[in-house]
Amino acid sequence: MRAIQVKEYVKGPGDLAVTTLPDPTPSPDTYLIAIHATATNFFDLLQIRGKYQHQPPLPWISGAEFAGIVLATPSSKTLPKFKKGDRVFGSSQGGYATQVCAREESLMPIPPGWVFLEAAGLMVTAPTSYAALVNRADIRRGDYVLIHAAAGGVGLAAVQIAKAFGATIIATASSSRKLEVVKGFGADHAVDYNREGWAEEVKKLTPQGRGVDIVFDPVGMVRDSLS
Question: From CA 153, how far away is CA 46, in angstroms rounded?
């Protein structure tokens, strides 16, 4: 198979290279997936530099999110959830390759009408944002939600989830292009958090300047967000 293997930590993705490796051999409890699309998250960029909290032993194949087709089912399962030929998306170490092994609980069926590219970026980002907004913050229709770094993977997922729940979304990002992106994904307001006075700008966008109900902060802006 073709894959991006990390033999030593690098400075950035430009230092990575595609190589040819043996096809992976699934264990009795894993599926073998032919990858048709993969995704990049911020933690992938940290991991290849050796700066993430979970580092696989070298050498390892980078990437964690993917979408593809089941090539083989677990030999230990008499009634596997997925069958050979099923379209799935999921998460497992080694997403930057043409094949990957994954456990059943790490896979989901691709919704009808979705292409591989659309499904590839869901398994890491969407559950993270859903857990934060729904399970922890108990988001409700009418809430004002401040979403930081909204143009990133978890940020865009958070924007879409908050929109689905009927919240008013104030999204922040660091450039005009990113602000355009978040507006395109459903944000009601977009604010540049590099601009001085952005916190007051956010307050003015809420009823009577009272501030937001929920802060979604994946980048460490808690103090200013609560001011």
Answer: 15
Output the six-digit token pair for 57: 């032993």
User: Could you give the CA distance from residue 42 to residue 158 in angstroms, rounded to a whole number?
Assistant: 15
Look at residues 129, 61, 126 and name the one whose alpha carbon lies nearest to residue 96: 61
**CA trace torsion 133, 134, 137, 141 (10° rounding):** 90
Residues β-bridged to residue 90: 66, 107
Q: Is beta strand 168-173 parallel, antiparallel or unpaired with respect to 144-147?
A: parallel
Radius of gyration of the chain (CA): 20
Q: State the amino acid at position 223 in one-letter form.
A: R
Residue 84, classed as helix, strand or coil, is coil
Give dist(CA 95, CA 14) in Å, integer.
17
Say how many C-beta atoms besides its own lie within 10 A of residue 177's C-beta.
9
Global pTM? Answer: 0.84
Question: pLDDT in tens for each of the 227 residues of the chain?
Answer: 999 999 999 999 999 999 999 999 999 999 999 999 999 988 899 999 999 998 999 999 999 999 999 999 999 999 999 999 999 999 999 999 999 999 999 999 999 999 999 999 999 999 999 999 999 999 999 999 999 999 998 999 999 999 999 999 999 999 999 999 999 999 999 999 988 889 999 999 999 999 999 999 988 877 776 76
